[in-house]
Design a protein that fits this description.
The chain is an alpha+beta fold. It has one domain. Helix content is about 25%, strand content about 40%. A 4-stranded mixed sheet has the order 3-1-2-4. Strand 1 and strand 2 form a beta hairpin. The longest helix is centred in the middle third of the chain and has 9 residues. The radius of gyration is 13 Å and the shape is elongated.
């Protein structure tokens, strides 16, 4: 028997350094993401600090940005 998963609204996040040296989390909405694909904050921070993208649930983006000293920018 398999365990059913839920879908959640999430963001795919990348860490960028702006021209003036600020750190910015650039977010792209990823609606209806399987809950098992969403990362814990520590895991997401580790991925971002090592050049990878992360997937976080809506709301965790602000916490992640605060942890990393970054601003949040939503990609258009």
């Amino acid at each position: 028997m398999t365990t059913p998963y839920k879908t959640v609204n999430a963001y795919t996040v990348a860490l960028h350094t702006t021209d003036d040296g600020r750190r910015a989390l650039v977010m792209l909405p990823a609606p209806n993401t399987a809950d098992f694909l969403v990362m814990e904050l520590a895991e997401a921070r580790h991925a971002l600090e090592h050049g990878s993208c992360a997937t976080v649930v809506c709301g965790d983006d602000a916490l992640l940005a605060a942890m990393m000293g970054a601003t949040v920018e939503v990609a258009a």
